[in-house]
Design goal:
Chain A: It holds the Pfam family ETF. The complex is a heterotrimer. Chain A is of the alpha/beta class. Chain A has two domains: 194 residues, 3-Layer(aba) Sandwich (Rossmann fold), CATH 3.40.50.620; 60 residues, no CATH class. Chain A contains seven helices and eleven strands. Chain A has a nine-stranded mixed beta sheet, sandwiched between helices. By secondary structure, chain B is of the alpha+beta class. Chain B contains 15 helices and 20 strands. In chain B, strands 3, 4, 5, 6, 12, 13, 14, 15 and 16 form a nine-stranded mixed beta sheet that branches. In chain B, helix 1 packs parallel to helix 9, helix 9 packs antiparallel against helix 10 and helix 13 packs antiparallel against helix 14. In chain C, the strands form three sheets. Chain C has a two-stranded antiparallel ribbon with strand order 1-6. Chain C has a domain of 70 residues: Alpha-Beta Plaits, CATH 3.30.70.20. Classes of the chains: A alpha/beta, B alpha+beta, C alpha+beta. Chains in contact: A-B, A-C, B-C. The interface between B and C is large, with 60 and 44 residues. The complex binds flavin-adenine dinucleotide and iron/sulfur cluster (SF4) (2 copies). One iron/sulfur cluster binds next to helix 3 and helix 4 of chain C.
Chain lengths: 266, 433, 111
């Protein structure tokens, strides 16, 4: 079995626009993903393959990962300005033979966190995204159990078996240091290069998001203060909150109809 | 069998030149740097004299990441309100074979280290060397690092780990460390549009200016500097350590006061601080130099206190590059000859003695002390600017006073005895002449 | 309004023509990659007997802060790794000084 880790070459000094090899690295989230992959592989004797999509300079992060224990490295030679779906498709092709694909939940250079989801969609793998806590399998057959962050402080517990794309948050694991000999060997590592000539991804036509106009009545009141209060006061309930208990299908329908009513959907 | 032939600790100018020289001599070289990339830990004033690179990288000036070529050198003497400026301009310095150049160290050191890689050395960054390994006879034969599985053995270790050199100290090559041999350099990198810099400093294209300043350090013994980069200016001060705390003035306050001086303020008006930095300088030259050779070990650059800091000269990078190169060559020779004991490595000290590296130091031996002495620091700037002020002040209807009278009166006002003046003049003449 | 007239209107002397920085703003111009291990530690007990307080004035990063009870509060995070503090300190054992883990600490950009 092979475990893949996707690493994005980003500016480690926190600047988003400067591509300067000296200041580049990979995000804490990617570091955590690599650490988990290495831990899983230690238990199962799997091979770890690290993948990045970017120019020659990006090979530095691959060598770094090799130094820390990964076995193979692939660089996808592709312009990083492509959107996430295109990048994900290219990565998916390179890692389609892998069983587990680890990613950081999103990169710190204004990443949207969508690449892992696109990869899962491309490969029809299960996905477990945005994990905050992970317990690695104890035996060959046991699953990875994990906690996923939901809105409002809630957590979802997941069991991951079989082929899956997993993305983790940066705080979940501290990446091990490379050994000195590991670093020296990594300098000599051969990096496989995949060129992507034709990127055939259907990206749906997009247009700027523009909610429909909706009439809002002018506030009424005798004094200006009253009118301002009317618009801004949150101390009294405006009455939109509503909890319903429905089957998933009806719940979805209700949500869509409400979104229409409020102008978010046409 | 050792892991490698030669280990170079520190990828500053000394380390990279040592690595280039040793790799070119056909040795296996590992160059270890604690920063995430070479130059990331290194700060200096701003001017490099790279001619020594001719030997290792003949076409260096076509590739080195240079900001501006120095065509104007000024020495400024500041009193509280006045300034005497001795300014020399040579446009010839702006063309091959060039003289000095401003460059950012994170650029320059990184480039130089890449030249070492191109020559065949192996560069390992993000790794701090923590100590030395010795064989049964006590000969140094490798290093320990802060990495897991981090020991590395070699025939020769070259310590180019800069001013704090814990390697040279661990090897017992230094006498007790005395703070008064060091100065603290602090600087601000200030951003200004290129066109504004060109106009204010009277230069164009990639011509640059180097200003060394005496006085203007708020009563703390030291000096100041201003260097032009393409679209930034480096303004900094160099401060004698033990005096610093006695004056109860913090380093950044001293820079701020220098920036407020009427002769400096117009040069930097409207500039924004984009980086603040600090670093030590081994200032005392020959008087503080350690032994530079031990069994299996050579020391080069600031680690060996080879920086030349003598008032109007502040040169360390060229001394580091030269000593590093000689260390790399000597280490390779000693290995080939099969003797890497201290005796086998002595060609290094010989080379240092024969070249500018130690010749300049011997010549200028007394200058650092003279320049940092209380008289030169606190009395002479006022004395000299006082003389010039009166020579050029027209106080009609009074006739001009005679120069001799001005000299005598200003000397008394500054509180300098004739004896001291003569003595300092002689030291200066002997040192500089 | 031109800089010149602004200055005149506000009675600002010509010699403060750049923005004075707070120390925090100054230190924020430098990049520090912080490691969880403190590479320098200060033994407050040794400092209590120290009258010179050299470090407080000399540390270019202003990391030594005297406390009201005669001790020293020290933060290692924004350190230039210059070595000034251990050089000027006369109290044996007050400062334990090492370099940070490789790859961490100060990262200069345009120095
Ligand atoms: C304020 C100031 C102004 C100066 N102005 C000038 C000037 O205008 N012109 C000039 O020529 N010189 C100038 N100098 C002097 C010059 O900077 C030095 O002489 C020169 O940098 C010395 O080079 P080096 O290679 O010996 O040491 P460094 O440049 O200090 O390099 C040492 C290297 O070793 C690394 N290192 C240290 N310890 C370890 C370890 N344990 N493990 C791994 N790596 C380690 C460091 O990270 C660093 O990269 C100035 C210095 C200062 C402080
Ligand atoms: S660190 Fe040293 S100089 Fe600073 S207060 Fe403590 S004893 Fe004094
Ligand atoms: S090494 Fe320098 S910057 Fe760091 S604490 Fe000591 S004096 Fe301050």
């Amino acid at each position: 079995m092979t475990i893949a880790v996707c690493l994005k070459w980003i500016n480690a000094s926190g600047q988003t626009d400067i591509d300067d090899d000296r200041f580049m690295g990979f995000s804490y989230a990617d570091q955590a993903a690599l650490e988990y992959a290495l831990r899983v592989a230690e238990n199962t004797n799997d091979e770890v393959i690290v993948v990045t999509a970017g120019p020659v300079g990006a090979e530095a992060v691959l060598r770094d990962a090799i130094a820390r224990g990964a076995q193979r490295a692939v660089r996808i030679d592709i312009d990083r300005s492509h959107d996430s779906a295109v990048i994900a498709q290219a990565i998916a092709q390179a890692v389609s033979h892998c069983s587990l694909i680890w990613c950081g939940d999103y990169s710190s250079d204004r990443g949207s966190g969508s690449v892992p989801a696109f990869i899962a969609a491309q490969l029809s793998f299960a996905q477990a995204l945005g994990l905050v806590d992970i317990v690695l399998p104890t035996g060959a057959q046991s699953p990875i159990t994990a906690l996923r962050r939901l809105d409002g402080g809630r957590r979802e517990q997941l069991e991951i078996r079989g082929q899956a794309v997993i993305s983790v948050e940066g705080s979940t694991a501290r990446l091990r240091r490379a050994s000195l000999k590991g670093s020296m060997a990594a300098n000599k590592q051969v990096i496989e290069i995949v060129t992507v000539n034709q990127v055939a991804v259907e990206t749906p036509p997009t247009r700027a998001y523009r909610p429909r106009a909706r009439a809002v009545a002018a506030p009424v009141g005798n004094s200006a203060l009253d009118r301002v209060r009317q618009i801004t006061d949150t101390s009294t309930a405006k009455g939109h909150g509503e909890t319903v208990h429905l089957e998933p299908r009806e719940a979805a329908e209700l949500i869509v109809s409400k979104l229409r009513e409020w102008g978010y959907q046409s | 069998m050792t892991d490698t032939d030669i280990i170079v600790v520190g990828a500053g100018p000394a380390g990279s030149c040592a690595a280039i020289a040793a790799a070119k001599a056909g040795k296996r070289v590992v160059l270890i740097e604690r920063g995430p990339f070479p130059g990331s830990k290194n700060m200096y004033g701003g001017v490099i004299y790279p001619r020594i690179l001719d030997e290792l990288i003949p076409d260096w000036f076509e590739h080195a990441p240079i900001q501006r070529w120095i065509v104007r050198r000024s020495t400024m003497l500041l009193s509280d309100t006045g300034a005497l400026n001795i300014d020399y301009r040579s446009n010839a310095w702006g063309q091959a074979p060039y003289n000095g150049a401003t460059a950012y160290r994170p650029d320059f050191d990184n480039w130089l280290a890449q030249q070492a890689v191109a020559a065949g050395a192996e560069l390992i960054c993000s790794t701090t060397v923590t100590g030395l390994l010795r064989d049964a006879q006590g000969r140094i034969n490798g290093i320990t690092t802060d990495r897991p599985d981090g020991d590395l053995t070699a025939s020769v270790v070259i310590a180019c780990d800069g001013v704090n050199s814990f390697i040279a100290k661990e090897a017992g090559l230094y006498k007790a460390v005395d703070a008064s041999n060091y100065t603290l350099g602090v600087k601000e990198t200030l951003s200004l549009p290129k066109s504004v810099i060109d106009e204010r400093f009277g230069v164009r294209d990639n011509q640059g200016v180097d200003i060394e300043i005496l006085g203007g350090t708020s009563g703390v013994n030291g000096g100041g500097f201003i260097y032009t980069n393409l679209d930034t200016i480096a303004v900094g001060v160099v401060l004698k350590l033990p005096k610093l705390s006695a004056q109860k003035k913090r380093p950044e306050e001293i820079i701020a006061e220098l920036k407020r001086h009427p002769a400096i303020a117009p040069l930097i008006e409207g500039a924004e601080v984009i980086e603040y930095s600090a670093h030590l300088i081994p200032e005392a030259g020959l008087d503080m130099m350690p032994k530079m050779v031990a069994d299996g070990l050579l020391v080069a650059g600031d680690a060996a206190a080879l920086c030349l800091a003598a008032g109007i000269w502040l040169e360390g990078v060229n001394f580091a590059m030269a000593s590093g190169m000689y260390a790399g060559q000597s280490a390779a020779q000693a290995m080939t000859a099969g003797n890497t004991t201290a005796a086998g490595l002595q060609t290094y000290t010989k080379k240092l003695n024969e070249t500018f590296v130690l010749k300049d130091h011997k010549k200028l031996r007394k200058i650092p002390h003279l320049v940092l002495s209380d008289r030169v620091q606190h009395k002479y700037p006022g004395f000299v600017t006082g003389i010039v002020e009166r020579m050029f002040r027209v106080e009609n209807p009074h006739p001009k006073p005679g120069v001799r009278r001005i000299l005598r009166e200003e000397r008394k006002k500054a509180g300098i005895s004739l004896m001291d003046l003569v003595r300092d003049a002689l030291t200066g003449l002997k040192g500089f002449g | 309004m031109s800089l010149e007239s602004l200055r005149a209107a506000n009675n600002i002397e010509r010699d403060t023509t750049w923005a004075e920085l707070s120390f925090q703003e100054r230190i924020d111009t430098a990049e520090f990659r912080i490691h969880e291990r403190a590479h320098i530690t200060v033994n407050g007990d040794s400092c209590r007997g120290c009258t010179t307080r050299e470090c407080v004035v000399a540390c270019p990063a202003n990391l030594f802060v005297p406390t009201s009870d005669g001790g020293i509060l020290f933060n290692y995070e924004n350190c230039f790794e210059c070595g000034t503090c251990y050089m000027v300190c006369n109290e044996a054992g007050a400062i334990t000084w090492t370099y940070p883990e490789g790859g961490y600490g100060i990262v200069f950009h345009r120095t």
